[in-house]
Amino acid sequence: MSDAPASSTEHKRIDEKSTSLFDFYGKPKFLKVLPLSLQHLLAMIAGVITPPIIVAGVVGASVEEKLLLIQIAVLASGVCTVFHLYGVWKFGARLPAIFGVGFAYVPTLVAVGAQYGIEGILGAQLIGGMTMVVVGYFIQYIRHLFPPVVAGTVVLVIGLSLYDIAIRYMAGSGNVNASDFGDPINWIVAVVTLLTVLIAAQFGKGVVKLSAIIVGIVVGYLLSLSLGLVSFENVTNASWVAVPQVMPFKMEFHTAAIASMVVICIINSVQTIGDLSATTVGGMNRELKTKELTGGLLGNGLTTTISSFFGALPTSTFSQNVGIVAMTKVISRYVLALAGIFMILAGLSPKFGAMITTIPYPVLGGATITVFGMITMTGIQLLVKDEMSARNMTIVGLSLALSLGIAAEPSAIEQFPAVLRDLIGGAPIVVAAITAFTLNIVLPKKSLSDEAKEREKIANEDKATEEAAHSQRNHLDQRSVHAD
Question: Distance between CA atoms of 258 and 256, rounded to whole angstroms?
Answer without folding.
Answer: 6
